[in-house]
Specification:
heterodimer, A: 367 residues, alpha+beta, five-stranded antiparallel beta sheet, 9 helices, 23% helix, globular, B: 359 residues, Rossmann fold, OB fold (Dihydrolipoamide Acetyltransferase, E2P), six-stranded mixed beta sheet, 10 helices, elongated
């Protein structure tokens, strides 16, 4: 087991294309860290540099206390899992799992012992003599996982391993993988573009965009205190409502001035002298009030209702501004109804319109 | 604008029975979604309605007229696919003009109609661009525009959002539904994505292995699924299920670790059946407590999955894991003992053999 340190790591594919720029990242021993971002953000390149499948143009990478810049992939003591499924169809489950040990010349009983331990942990002991292509998808995935585990690597590196699975299986495997990583305590670096995978599985998420690290933090901190507009809108579904507006006397106005919201006191200090802002609020941080509850911040017209079963998303228009608002399933509103809305003042977000950086330091918001 | 009736539709491909006696209707101005997994027969149904596939049995009726023998063009429906199939050398404007030119529509009328539709789809500024210079979402809008300028009687859509990335798909979902409302037109829409179906449809028809499972509003399908397949296919996360039998008025798992008392009306609904039962409960109908109460079940925390606005808690009970929806701030260590209670009025029981819903 080991920690991983990346110092000022840059990868250029040529003079124009900088895939990863000046990346500083420390991954703790035993941590489950997810590299999250859209396609082309540099997440897979970062993983491949840690693995030694790609050489960085500059910067240092350490695994444990070893500087691995010049070590070949095979000497880095890591297990790289691409999409699960790359199993050998002509070999049994047992031979698939023990395959990575062949080159290591381990005594036979040691191999047997390791395979049987791994199989027990993954609950596939009864399948050891089957062929993988006869097994359902979830069990094939476990076999692929077993093959990565059997070497007792210091680090697991995984590149979108769940992408090809159907939604139900993906949800099951998410929980399995997270549980397994907790039990084994092996450092995991996991690449995905799926924010739900990132949120649900990781200890910390590192969000990348265009080769630049945006933020590293726990899932809840990333969700509640995004440091950039990119992070705010990339994470969460439906995406955070963003209103780009004019600020006057600590009040945000949309272009048509129909949306009007007076900012809470705790933001006034950072808003001094600012005339334009991206105002952000998540769908679940706006509440649809009952008619007799006073104290509404805004009023809007229901233009769309999207039932999800466990909750309902309403699209509510305030002039030209359309807000997504989530409500419990028992709230049933028709198109055209006018409703009062209350914004949770402790959950608002403000971003600088030029730098797109958050104007609210984490401490400023009262959680 | 029109209504559609599909009656006793059957279709075979060689020995494969793609559709078995499917009957459904789409009302004038309705957003109807045909939902099912791969190979359920959804696309085949749509192609039979479009006239692109001949039926082996049954009738397709539009506005009271049987259209089995009409050619696709005579049916006057618009078909939108997941691939946009735009002409790469034509601009958005030319792509949209194409079906109208074929009808020899006067230039001025054509121009007015294209601009009106472009406005509605918010693609006015794209009209002079070629497809290669547009994003996937923009191309999809142009493809829609090309279908819309014809003012067809009905839109048939086959997974039109599949190729878009996640964020765009969420946006386009709302966008499509808004359009359908504004145009006051009839949509017959195929997808394998239950979130799309739930959020957009007036009614959903669930299809599996060529057989219609249920046809109803999204809420009814979610709250009162007709059978185990529908219950498991609709809703995310998937409904929790456990094999049980009825003992002393309680449903119990075979390992004895799980047991929940039923209400009088539920026991009555079981009508004496005590074996081969499947208990089903959605994650939001379970609550977690730190101490045991009346009618709670003990388990241990297996894993937490925080999503920001909520946290799913996987709780292990004997050999089973139940997913429970908890508040975003919920915290507990793996291995902690917790006690679960169920919103007993909202739980389901299915017959394990027929897989039909008992309640």
């Amino acid at each position: 087991m080991a920690d991983i340190t990346l110092e000022k790591v840059t990868k250029k594919f040529n003079e124009e294309v900088v895939a990863v720029k000046d990346l500083d990242l420390y991954i703790e021993d035993g941590e489950f860290l997810v590299l999250l971002g859209p396609s082309g953000c540099g997440k897979t390149t970062t993983l491949r540099m840690i693995a030694g499948l790609e050489n960085q143009s500059s910067g240092d990478i350490r695994i444990g206390d070893r500087l691995v810049n010049d070590l070949r992939a095979g000497d880095r003591d890591i297990a790289f899992v691409f999409q699960f499924y790359a199993l050998y169809p002509h070999l049994t489950v047992k031979d698939n799992i023990s395959f990575p040990l062949r080159a290591q010349n381990l005594p036979k009983h040691e191999v047997e012992q390791r395979v049987s331990d791994v199989a027990k942990r993954l609950r596939i002991s009864h399948l050891l003599n089957s062929r993988p292509n006869r097994l359902p998808g979830g069990e094939q995935q476990r076999v692929a996982l077993g093959r990565a585990m059997v070497r007792h690597p210091q680090v697991f590196l995984m590149d979108e391993p769940l992408t090809n699975l159907d939604a139900a299986l993906r949800a099951d495997m998410r929980a399995e993988l997270k549980h397994l990583q907790q039990e084994l305590g092996t450092t995991m670096v996991y690449v995905t573009h799926d924010q739900i995978e990132a949120m649900s599985m990781s200890h910390r998420i590192a969000v990348l965009n265009l080769g630049v690290l945006q933020q590293v933090d726990t899932p809840l901190n990333i969700y509640r205190h995004p440091k950039t507009l990119f992070v705010a809108t990339f994470i969460g579904s439906p995406p955070m409502n963003i209103i780009t507006g004019r600020v006057q006397d600590y009040t945000v106005y949309s272009n048509d001035t129909e949306f009007k919201y007076t900012l809470p006191k705790y933001t006034h200090q950072v808003m001094g002298g600012i005339e334009k802002v991206h105002f952000g609020i998540r769908a679940e941080d706006i509440r649809i009030l009952e008619d007799n509850e006073g104290d509404a911040d805004l009023r809007g017209e229901v233009i769309l209702r999207e039932p999800m079963g466990d909750e309902t998303i309403y699209r509510i228009a305030i002039g030209q501004t359309v807000l997504a608002v989530t409500a419990p399933p028992k709230v049933v509103l028709e198109r055209g109804e006018h409703v009062p809305l209350k914004i949770n003042l402790n959950r608002i977000h403000l971003f600088d319109t030029r730098t797109e950086q958050s104007l609210l330091a984490k401490e400023a918001a009262i959680v | 604008m029109s209504n559609l009736e599909v009656q006793n539709l059957s279709k075979n491909f060689g020995r494969l029975q793609a559709l078995k006696d499917v009957t459904l209707d789409v009302q004038d101005g309705e957003f109807m979604v045909l939902l099912g997994p791969t190979a359920a027969g959804k696309t085949t149904t749509l192609r039979c309605v479009a006239g692109m596939e001949k039926l082996d049995n049954g009738t397709v009726t539009m506005d009271g007229q049987i259209i089995n023998d009409l050619s696709p063009a005579e049916r006057d429906v618009a078909f939108v696919f997941q691939t946009y199939a735009l002409y790469p050398r034509k601009t958005a404007y030319e792509n949209m003009a194409f079906p109208l030119e074929a009808r020899k529509m006067p230039k001025a009328e054509m121009d007015a109609r294209i601009r009106e539709i472009a406005e509605l789809l918010q693609i006015t500024e794209l009209l002079n661009r070629r497809p290669a210079a547009m994003s996937g979402g923009q191309q999809q809008r142009v493809a829609l525009g090309r279908a819309m300028v014809r003012q067809p009687r009905m839109f048939l859509m086959d997974e039109p959002l599949t190729n878009l990335d996640f964020k765009l798909r969420v946006e386009m979902r709302a966008e499509l539904k808004r359009l359908q409302r504004e145009l006051d037109t009839t949509f017959f829409y195929v997808t394998n994505d239950q979130v799309e179906a739930m959020s957009m449809a007036d009614r959903i028809a669930v299809l599996n292995e060529g057989v219609l499972q249920q046809i109803d509003t999204p809420e009814e399908i979610y709250n009162h699924p007709a059978n185990l397949f529908v219950a498991q296919f609709v809703g995310s996360p998937r409904i929790n299920t456990l094999k049980c039998s009825l003992e002393d008025g309680a449903l119990r798992s075979s390992d004895g670790e799980f047991g929940v008392h039923l209400q009088a009306w539920q026991k009555e609904a079981l009508n004496g059946q005590s074996q081969n039962l499947i208990f089903g409960v959605r994650s939001e109908d379970i609550s977690i407590h730190q101490t045991a109460r009346d009618n709670t079940v003990a388990g241990t925390i297996y894993i937490l999955e925080p999503l920001g606005d909520r946290t799913y808690v996987d709780v292990q009970i004997g050999g089973h894991i139940l997913k429970v929806r908890a508040d975003a701030d919920y915290e507990a260590d793996t291995g902690t003992t917790v006690h679960l209670s169920f919103d007993v009025d909202r739980v389901h029981v299915f017959d394990a053999e027929s897989e039909l819903t008992i309640f």
